Amino acid sequence: MSSSVSTFTRTTQTTTCFCCISSFSSSSSSSSSSKQSRQIGPGGGKRRSVSRFLTSPSSVAKVDNDDRRGAVLFVATRTTGTENTRKRCRKRGVYISPCRASGAYEQFLSGITEKDRKDVSESWEKIMRWKSFVESANKNDEDVLANTKKVTIMGGGSFGTAMGTLLARNKSDLDVVLLLRNEQEAETINATNRNAKYLPKYELPKNIRATTDAKEALKDSDFIIHAVPTQHSRKFLSSVKDIIDPKTPLLCLSKGLEVGSSLMMSEVIPEALERDQPLCVLSGPTFAVELMQGLPTGIVAASENEALARRVQSLYGSSCLRVNTSTDVVGVEMSGALKNVLAIAAGIVEGLELGNNAMAALVAQGCAEIRWLAGKLGAKSETLAGLSGTGDIMLTCFVNLSRNRTVGSRLGSGETLEEILGSMNQVAEGVATAGAVVQLARKHRVSLPVLTAVARILEGDVDPKDAVDQIMNLPQVPEV
Ligand SMILES: NC(=O)C1=CN([C@@H]2O[C@H](COP(=O)(O)OP(=O)(O)OC[C@H]3O[C@@H](n4cnc5c(N)ncnc54)[C@H](O)[C@@H]3O)[C@@H](O)[C@H]2O)C=CC1
Ligand SMILES: O=C(CO)COP(=O)(O)O
User: Can you say how many angstroms the Cα of residue 346 is from the centroid of all Cα atoms in its chain?
Assistant: First the structure.
């Protein structure tokens, strides 16, 4: 059976020419309607509709037998098709060869000169030389993980468990202790090597153990990791302050502002412990489940004490986790706390099905609001634009794994906050932080339309739809 090519013209205003090829269709009649599908199919068998896969105004295609699938090999010279189009074609046994579609690849290749290639490979070699240089310059630095024997994690929820797991995987004789409140949960973790409540799918390394004995857990720890949700942190820390060695560095993972005081964790911790404990905050785009899967991740370790931030970098840095150091504690903490509130807003936009334009506009506005408030408090712009700022905003606002985004999307779909929180067994810090953000903004005379609207929605003062209407009808302003 030989291939036949048929070309026909669409008479709609938007498309002028439409070319299609069929090897099997007995009919090569043309279509005058953009809606009308051209039927093709192998040797009189089931016919497939393919014309709706072709989206460009003009496309020339060549058809051949595809023996393996008994389907149609479809090579469109000007139709690359979207990923969806390709998927649909694959599903129906129609094969599109995108590389031939537009000649773009050939054009790309022909545009590259030998000099371009040399420049690119030289640039990469330079990066590799820099790597060797830094490694040899640092070879006498302390290997912090090697010198660490015991790490205690206060709070054995998803993130505490994941950050403990990373260390335990990197050093098999490290004693990693999860300090929990619930005896039964601790026993289950020890008996099953799984955190059944928070991360049931993942096996924990053998050198992680759980206990409810705070004294034993905190004794002789080289590092203490704080992974208790923000709103419970003050009370919890006050209860263990006398059994924490004042010299042991505390690494804080919690992202939020305290309700009532609007304080950041770096302010709550010294107040609760009644002293200046060595402190480093860790924040960035880091979903616990992806850490458990060993996927590449980046995080910022921020401390006013630069040497401590570097020690934390050495403790945690691995081929799974890049750790950037920073001294901008305010920037890192404010980003982490405020992005959770913004993620609720992003979820609301999703739940209301307002579309991608709305989502992008909302997140851009939210980034500006975070910059206005955090900037007033002294955050550096490069921090806000970096991993713990824009990086975490992108992750939490755009990815369904986020609990804060999920709260928003369920609110947007019409559920009540009571129903949503009642069905969750994990914390969504943005819910409590939203009101604290508004208080802080008032104190610093900063106006935050989107973040304030989130607080109003959460408090039940306004319906999500009405809040969107109100925001859209604010006066038009210059870009700031
Ligand atoms: N899960 C994640 O992917 C990430 C979480 N974080 C932050 O880490 C912090 C902890 O979050 P998750 O571990 O995910 O939360 P979670 O909801 O999974 O677990 C919270 C843990 O805190 C404990 N806890 C709750 N109330 C307590 C209290 N009154 N006293 C002592 N312990 C208490 C719970 O028993 C549980 O072990 C939050 O601030 C969160 O924003 C940061 C980055 C990623
Ligand atoms: O902070 C996080 C990722 O960086 C986790 O976000 P959620 O608390 O919204 O799940």
Answer: 13
CB-side neighbour CA atoms (13 Å) of 154: 30
Record the tokens describing residue 265, joined without a space.
Answer: 């964790």
**Pocket lining: 159 vs ligand 2, CB cutoff 6 Å:** no
Residue range 325-347, pLDDT digits in tens: 999 999 999 999 999 999 999 99
Domain borders along the chain are 4-107, 112-137, 150-327, 331-472
Q: Over the stretch 205-255, which tens digit does the pLDDT of each residue have? A: 999 999 999 999 999 999 999 999 999 999 999 999 999 999 999 999 999
DSSP of 91-114: HTTEEE-THHHHSHHHHHHHT--H
Cβ(286) – ligand 2 distance below 6 Å: yes
Side chain identity, residue 91: K
Classify the complex by whether its ipTM is higher than 0.85, answering yes or no: yes
Report the 10 Å Cβ neighbour count for 95.
Answer: 17
Catalytic residue among 206, 339, 443, 465: 339
429 alpha carbon – ligand 2 mean position (Å):
8
pLDDT at 431 over 50: yes
Best of 427, 429, 433 for a ligand 1 pocket test (most atoms within 8 Å of beta carbon): 427
- The CATH class, in words, for 331-472 is mainly alpha
Token representation of residue 446: 């900063």
Range 150-327 classified under CATH 1.10.10.60: no
User: Does residue 115 carry a catalytic annotation?
Assistant: no
Tokens 């050495």 correspond to: 314
State yes or no: pLDDT of 89 exceeds 90.
Answer: no
